[in-house]
């Protein structure tokens, strides 16, 4: 694919070209779709490990004495309860309660006093939004934090993000980091983060290592930067990428570079929502499978609170009266071989439309089609038999529990 003037490329674009990647437009970015077989890339993550370039994602730093309070107001979660070195999934909602974006928030400030026994009274967080929403999230956070003693800095253009995902991820990563970090990485809990250093042929590169991911497997995301010099950022990201490849070779682990195609099929199997499919400006969190993310019990106001509370009260009243008009997100398992796709109508046993597919594909791991769909609440119980209109031909699907796939822990 030829780059257009409006498309952006990541600091690792040359690496992907040299690896023979096929590219696609994603949120205004020219991103690797696949390098060879998307099925092989998917299976590599499930059985060994895959390497992803996620540098299109945003990085927005929020710091200052009232940074936690600012994020409590800006997001629907209780960010002030996040401990240093931990992470939390949350949502940026509009005043109407719909979803502007879903984000991961990392708390970075130190938990221990420094050498002089002083604990920094300020707080520091890194908010990671989706690629196409990064500028909108940065603007929203800046506006919402303006009434607090907090500073919002959009570092997206100065940062790179690489992910290694799969059962072999920890073994590969420990081989790439400085020797002193090996124990820390192995003992890291899910949704935690720490600052570390990657050993590369060009020298040591500082990174923020997070045990998070979007595949349903164990894995890590490495944030490089902020580095204002674009060439230097590209050199550092390339060095980290190559160090991970070398570490896999040295420990005998299979590691494949993976594109967006396998990332999408992996996240779908894991039942993880995608902005633009399950999440958007038209639907509330409760309609998109992320209702529990909203912290109604936290003190103080937050953007969208009034609308979300009103919608919850309305839903409770309708449920009690037997007049439930809500739609909810469910998992669907296909009974045949044909896969449902985003936008396809969901039908009840009488052929009436009761919902719409938000994401769907064949599951390489499970061997049958799976889909996420938003359907009328009265048709959402596990075991409910439904149909999906596959271009004029109804195909049988059944409501199942999410996630479709869950790794052994």
TrEMBL record:
Gene Ontology BP term (one): methylation
Pfam families referenced in this protein's UniProt entry, alphabetically: GCV_T (PF01571), GCV_T_C (PF08669)
Source organism of this protein record: Micrococcus terreus
Designated name of the protein: Aminomethyltransferase
Keywords assigned: Aminotransferase, Methyltransferase, Transferase
Catalytic activity line of the entry: N(6)-[(R)-S(8)-aminomethyldihydrolipoyl]-L-lysyl-[protein] + (6S)-5,6,7,8-tetrahydrofolate = N(6)-[(R)-dihydrolipoyl]-L-lysyl-[protein] + (6R)-5,10-methylene-5,6,7,8-tetrahydrofolate + NH4(+)
Cellular component terms (Gene Ontology): cytosol; glycine cleavage complex
Gene3D superfamilies documented for this protein: Aminomethyltransferase beta-barrel domains, Aminomethyltransferase fragment, Probable tRNA modification gtpase trme, domain 1
EC number: 2.1.2.10
Similarity remark: Belongs to the GcvT family.
Top-level taxonomic group: Bacteria
């Amino acid at each position: 694919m030829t780059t257009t003037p409006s498309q952006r490329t990541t600091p690792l674009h040359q690496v992907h070209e040299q690896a023979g990647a096929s590219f696609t437009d994603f949120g205004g970015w020219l991103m690797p779709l696949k390098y060879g077989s998307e099925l092989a890339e998917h299976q590599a993550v499930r059985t060994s490990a895959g390497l992803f370039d996620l540098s299109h994602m945003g990085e927005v730093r929020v710091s200052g004495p009232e940074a936690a309070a600012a994020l409590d107001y800006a997001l629907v979660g209780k960010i002030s309860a996040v401990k240093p070195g931990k992470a939390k999934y949350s949502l940026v909602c509009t005043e109407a309660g719909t979803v502007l974006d879903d984000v991961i928030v990392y708390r970075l400030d130190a938990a221990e006093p420094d050498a002089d026994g002083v604990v920094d009274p300020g707080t520091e967080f890194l908010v990671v939004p989706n690629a196409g929403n990064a500028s909108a999230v940065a603007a929203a956070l800046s506006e919402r934090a303006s009434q607090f003693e907090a500073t919002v800095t959009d570092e997206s253009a100065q940062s790179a993000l690489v992910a290694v995902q799969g059962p072999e991820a920890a073994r590969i990563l420990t081989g790439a980091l400085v020797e002193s970090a090996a124990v820390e990485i192995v003992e890291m809990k899910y949704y935690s983060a720490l600052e570390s250093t990657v050993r590369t042929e060009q020298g040591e590169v500082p990174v923020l290592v997070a045990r998070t991911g979007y595949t349903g497997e164990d894995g890590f995301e490495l944030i490089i930067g902020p580095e204002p010099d674009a060439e230097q950022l590209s050199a550092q990201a390339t060095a980290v990428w190559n160090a991970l490849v070398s570490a896999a070779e040295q420990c005998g682990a299979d590691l494949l570079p993976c594109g967006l195609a396998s990332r999408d099929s992996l996240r779908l199997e894991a039942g993880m929502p995608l902005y633009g499919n399950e999440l958007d400006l038209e639907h509330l969190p409760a309609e998109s499978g992320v209702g529990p993310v909203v912290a109604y019990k936290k003190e103080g106001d937050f953007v969208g609170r009034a609308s979300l509370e009103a919608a919850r009260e309305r839903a409770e009243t309708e449920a009690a009266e037997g007049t439930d008009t809500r739609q909810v997100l469910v998992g669907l398992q296909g009974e045949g071989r044909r896969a449902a796709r985003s936008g396809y109508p969901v039908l009840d046993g009488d052929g009436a439309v009761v919902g719409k597919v938000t994401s769907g594909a064949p599951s390489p791991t499970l061997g049958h089609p799976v889909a996420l769909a938003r359907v009328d609440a009265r048709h959402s119980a596990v075991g409910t038999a439904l149909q999906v209109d596959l271009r004029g031909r109804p195909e049988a699907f059944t409501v199942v529990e999410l996630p479709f796939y869950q790794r052994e822990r």
